[in-house]
């Protein structure tokens, strides 16, 4: 099988992918991972590393190798981008739906610490996950009478006793139709302005035709 080839093929197995702990909140849209791969330009005298005795990028490299497959599987709507050899310090940047970004400094941190920080700051809590699972089960249940539509007990809310019927079946009253209420309001304001300006006598004031039809002749 093809997925068994390559380094650490366990990363492509379904039990491993489902065992991830980072489930991003809905507002997280993009995740950037910035680190360096010093071994690509390795020299015998170790001059390719600024500080040979200390590699600050090893934690984020291991995080990308072991945890990113789980994150991709559990967050299919989040775009994950990797940038190599572009920064002296390793960090993760997450872009939110409102255009703001959150930066995590991963200098000299282990992959477990990086994962815990992401879960604590941008991950969903266990209460949120349990609530979403319960809500999804309730909404997809056929016994839920509050759901309307095709293949349900009721196709429309107007079939429930006491609800407003569909306008295509029974015509709505004029008080519930926007064009009549707007015309009634405009006529009343016009009459009021004429009375204030003195162009119309108060004794000769009559309710607008829409108001007479609605309140006096209905």
UniProtKB/TrEMBL annotation:
<keyword id="KW-0689">Ribosomal protein</keyword>
<dbReference type="Pfam" id="PF05047">
    <property type="entry name" value="L51_S25_CI-B8"/>
</dbReference>
<comment type="similarity">
    <text>Belongs to the mitochondrion-specific ribosomal protein mS25 family.</text>
</comment>
<dbReference type="GO" id="GO:0005840">
    <property type="term" value="C:ribosome"/>
</dbReference>
<protein>
    <recommendedName>
        <fullName>Small ribosomal subunit protein mS25</fullName>
    </recommendedName>
</protein>
<keyword id="KW-0687">Ribonucleoprotein</keyword>
<dbReference type="InterPro" id="IPR036249">
    <property type="entry name" value="Thioredoxin-like_sf"/>
</dbReference>
<keyword id="KW-0496">Mitochondrion</keyword>
<dbReference type="GO" id="GO:0003735">
    <property type="term" value="F:structural constituent of ribosome"/>
</dbReference>
<dbReference type="InterPro" id="IPR007741">
    <property type="entry name" value="Ribosomal_mL43/mS25/NADH_DH"/>
</dbReference>
<dbReference type="GO" id="GO:1990904">
    <property type="term" value="C:ribonucleoprotein complex"/>
</dbReference>
<feature type="domain" description="Ribosomal protein/NADH dehydrogenase">
    <location>
        <begin position="52"/>
        <end position="125"/>
    </location>
</feature>
<dbReference type="GO" id="GO:0005739">
    <property type="term" value="C:mitochondrion"/>
</dbReference>
<dbReference type="InterPro" id="IPR040049">
    <property type="entry name" value="Ribosomal_mS25/mL61"/>
</dbReference>
